[in-house]
Design brief:
four-stranded antiparallel β-sheet; 4 domains; Jelly Rolls; 585 residues
């Protein structure tokens, strides 16, 4: 054991005892005991109630914890002279992190009981410990549950000293819509609601920040924030907030994405940020397992039903093959695009769009086409059909344009495909009902339509809606030149498809060529849409560039239901902090 002459210099060189008078150091040294931990041994464990503080004499230890999504975070590595566990000296709460010995470690130990005795005789030491504990807990929170979590450790320590802890009661107004902004806020504990025009638009919890719009976009507060219950906030003055944002371009891009989510692209454009696409990681790509199972299962069912229909011609089998044959192509097509989306939306919305486009579009198109007296196979009539049906299908999608969370161009691709394929599926059913008693004619028509499904309605409407959503995500009018060009392209392809100036084998070639042109145009749009979604993920979650494999935890947003890419901590659709779902008891 070190003699007292060596222990006192160690205490003087340790931050926990900085500024403590010599006579108090003597009293503290007399209260310290010694312990030893082997390499790999846990010194203290997160979640346990602690009552001791440790000072390392020799060796190294690592401190780890879990963030809001349950992902392990390394907070620090401790060496000789480092201290940890001091929170237990001033509170009887649970340990907030786990500390393990990275090698054999010798420590000095101070218990809470001894600290309580020292408070009476060593007031300077007691005051200093409480200040250090406050900074330590703030530092740990910023590392685990804040937009700053990806910044260097030294920067976060500096921020911990700059933020101010504020407590508000339920019903208290934190910021008023329309006032000047002078601080940025982070919810540490409790809940607040965001109100625009008196209407609640979001509830924020631990890890959620607010107030960046007014500071970065140089506008007045765009919303009112009111506490729903007793809440603790960490606030950062405007000057300090702007300094840290200017210092870290990735952080600026992150807050720019928050602004895009909360108030739209026009204000976000005023915040200049580095392009994050250079940091995109391969693991952001989605899977295709659901698509392949559906494709193989659907084809198998269609083949079996086709054989049974040919042999039995039973009415029930005929109707079954009509339903499967009409829907397998459209459903597989939409599933393929949905699986390709880095940020897939809820399946219910796709199903509603699929049905709604048919329910609204088919009757609308039929009435208008009948009224105009269009004739299939005539170029002029084919053009009218293209215009009417493309507009009719979009009617089933426009209800989604006003939804703030459906904000990506790829959303437009998927919803447009769902609308177009819903129209096509129910159109196939109507077409097949007139041939349900002629098995060979029905099957040949259904198989041809199934094989040609990727080339038609879904692709055309996806192109139009991709342009609509691109304009929605930008500052220009959504009915601009790009949208007009996409509409003209889709109508042109639709017109040529319906015109069919050739027959037999050459008709199939004609339709395939038209289809390939549409798919190529859609492929280019999908590539741009995928880059946009991936850039948004990285801008809002710079740490995702370091996420790897099984260590990267995937969480579902409690607010909007988005399943976010592994390793992300903020929902890319609504901006809410992601949290691990706790097991139900």
């Amino acid at each position: 054991m070190l003699p007292d002459a060596d222990l006192l210099p160690l205490l003087r060189s340790t931050a926990l005892f900085t500024g403590v008078p010599a006579e108090e150091l003597q009293a503290i040294a007399a209260r310290l005991s010694r312990e030893r931990f082997a390499a790999g041994e846990t010194i203290l464990r997160e979640g346990e109630v602690g009552d001791t503080c440790y000072l390392i004499r020799r060796g190294r230890a690592g401190v780890v914890s879990r963030d809001l999504i349950g992902q392990e975070v390394t907070l620090a590595t401790f060496g000789p002279g480092a201290h940890f566990g001091e929170v237990a000296l001033v509170t009887q709460g649970k340990r907030t992190a786990t500390v393990r010995a990275l090698e054999a470690v010798d420590v000095y130990v101070l218990s809470r009981a001894d600290f309580v005795r020292l408070e009476q005789t060593c007031p300077a030491f007691a005051t200093h410990v409480r200040q250090q504990v406050h900074l330590l807990t703030v530092d740990a929170f910023l590392r685990k549950a804040s937009p700053f979590a990806h910044l260097p450790a030294a920067t976060i320590r500096r921020l911990a000293g700059q933020v101010r802890s504020e407590r508000v009661h339920g019903g208290d107004i934190v910021i008023h819509e329309g006032e000047e902004g002078n601080r940025w806020y982070l919810v540490r504990q409790g809940r607040v609601e965001v109100l625009k025009g008196g209407r609640r638009v979001q509830v924020l919890e631990a890890g959620d920040g607010f107030g960046e719009v007014a500071l970065l976009a140089a506008v007045q507060r765009t919303a009112t924030v009111r506490a729903l219950e007793a809440t603790e906030l960490l606030s950062l003055p405007k000057a300090d907030f702007m300094a840290i944002v200017e210092e870290h371009p990735a952080l600026r891009g992150q807050f720019r994405e928050f602004i895009r989510i909360r108030v739209g692209a026009s204000l976000a454009q005023t915040v200049v940020a580095a392009d994050p696409r250079a940091t995109l990681m391969p693991h952001l790509a989605g899977g295709r397992r659901r698509y392949w199972w559906l494709l193989l299962g659907g084809i198998a069912a269609f083949v079996v039903l086709s054989v049974l229909a040919t042999r039995t011609q039973a009415p029930a089998i005929m109707y079954a093959v009509l339903i499967v044959g009409s829907f397998i192509g459209p459903v597989v097509y939409v599933t393929n695009l949905a699986d390709a989306h880095l940020l897939p939306d809820r399946p219910l919305r796709l199903a509603v769009t699929f049905v709604l486009a048919a329910a609204l579009g088919i009757p609308l198109a039929y009435v208008i086409e009948t009224w105009l007296g269009v004739r299939h196979g005539v170029l002029g009539s084919s053009l009218l059909i293209g215009v009417i049906e493309e507009l009719a299908k979009v009617v089933g999608v426009v209800w989604l344009l006003r939804r703030a969370t459906a904000r990506f161009q790829m959303d437009g691709v998927v919803y447009g495909a769902a609308a177009g394929m819903g129209f096509a599926a129910f159109e196939n059913v109507l077409y097949g009902l007139a041939r349900v008693h002629a098995v060979s004619e029905l099957l040949s028509a259904l198989w041809l339509r199934t094989l040609l499904a990727p080339f038609g309605h879904g692709t055309w409407t996806a192109i139009i809606c991709a342009a609509l959503w691109r304009q929605k995500g930008g500052s220009a009018s959504r009915w601009g030149l790009r949208t007009g060009g996409a509409f003209a392209l889709s109508v042109g392809l639709h017109t040529l498809w319906n015109w069919q100036p050739v027959t037999g084998f050459w008709l199939v070639v004609w339709l395939v060529v038209i289809g390939l042109v549409g798919l190529e145009a859609l492929r280019a749009m999908i590539e741009g849409a995928t880059r946009e979604a991936a850039a948004a993920v990285v801008a809002l979650n710079p740490e995702v560039a370091q996420a790897r494999g099984a260590a990267a935890v995937q969480a579902t947003c409690r607010g909007c239901g988005q399943v976010s890419p592994p390793g992300t901590h903020y929902c890319v659709r609504c901006g809410a902090a992601l949290r691990q779902e706790l097991p139900r008891r």
